[in-house]
Amino acid sequence: MPMERESSSPSEEVELAGHIIDSLLLPKVLDEIMSQGGRFEILNISVGQRRQDPSAARLLVSADSTEHLDKIVRDIGRHGAVRIHQQDAELVPADMDGAFPEGFFCSTNQETQVRIGGVWHRVERPEMDCGLVVSSDKKVATLPMADARKGDLIVVGHHGTRVLPQERDRDKLGVFGFMQSTVGSEKPKNFTVREIAAEMRRAKQGDGKILVVAGPAVVHTGSREHLSRLIREGYVHVLFAGNALATHDIEQSFFGTSLGISMESGGGTAEGHEHHLRSINRIRRLGSIRNAVEQGTLTSGIMFECVQHNVPFVLAGSIRDDGPLPDVITDALAAQAAMRELIHSQGVTFCLMIATTLHSIAVGNLLPASVKTVCVDINPATVTKLADRGTFQSIGLVTDVEPFLRVLVEEVT
Description:
Blueprint (H helix, E strand, L loop, with lengths): L2 E2 L5 E9 L6 H11 L3 E8 L8 E8 L3 H11 L5 E2 L6 E4 L17 E6 L2 E6 L6 E4 L5 E4 L9 E4 L4 E4 L17 E2 L6 H15 L4 E6 L2 H4 L3 H9 L5 E5 H13 L1 E2 L2 E2 L12 H12 L2 H6 L7 H7 L4 E4 L11 E2 L2 H14 L2 E7 L2 H10 L5 E6 L2 H9 L5 E5 L2 H12 L1
Parallel strand pairs: 8-10, 13-22, 14-15, 14-20, 15-18, 18-19, 20-21, 21-22
Antiparallel strand pairs: 1-2, 2-4, 2-5, 3-4, 6-11, 7-8, 7-12, 9-10, 9-11, 16-17
Helix pairs in contact: 1-2, 3-13, 5-9, 5-13, 6-7, 11-12
């Protein structure tokens, strides 16, 4: 319960532990308190003497009202501040399908724990913007709102919950050692690309799995062979894209064009505007992309390499899709579910997002904070939006996709 100080302002003690100094968690907590008009007193602080040593701090947080205090304590909880006086989480059965009880705990993509019967339980499959459901054997997992079913035990409120923030990787001094980095269009990128390549080499050697999220600009800019080579060489374990990437990739295989533009001359072609539709139709007649590969109709390109090397993919549809290809999942919720399943079943640890704003943000919403994420786009707004919308672990690289992929391929192969 909140403690009363001499000032009679509502107050509550919280504590932080871990690498709260070098990961900037303590400064973030103090800044959050002050920016919301609250007050703090550092009651105790212990600073680790060596880089590997943890630190700890205990704070007294005060505000003008109990409601104001609750909001501050709730918000600093995202940075790892935990109430000293804890109680079990409140569990409320869902009263209908497809919705949570009012006041439900809104999940974060960081590691989270829930207190049940005096014991802290780790939340499985961390993901932002979900609820938390507790099973009969006290397992806790994130649950998308649409998947809620009447009777599900849902965590309500913030008591009995704690967030364990993703800390800076102290073994790395480069871009992966600090979060929320953005390498702008006028800054040197070679070092960043080398670090990305090093992460991908480690994954290929068995230390993790790589997810690539790609937009149609990969094909339009003449970068298709670069991504195809990464797949052939074993640097892609999962691919997420939309109807457009697959369609224009297949169009180039069938007609040598992308959106009717010759990939050799860069000029238009006779009736080229029909090529993407004719490509979709040919695949639909065969039933699937895999059938087209196995029957020898599709013999090159990104989708061909995925089939040849058993790289699972999810093609998520949109309202503007032509066709679409038979492999495209047109139900948005079903596409989300398919992506969630592959992220966790494949054990994705590294995500490379290339030239696709909406797909990057959508996938970023599904990823645990522990997944190292790189977003590459010529539009600076894309790389900043990803972090602004909650994927704080992302590193943004503002550049054209073709030179990026070309240099990346040179670095990893």
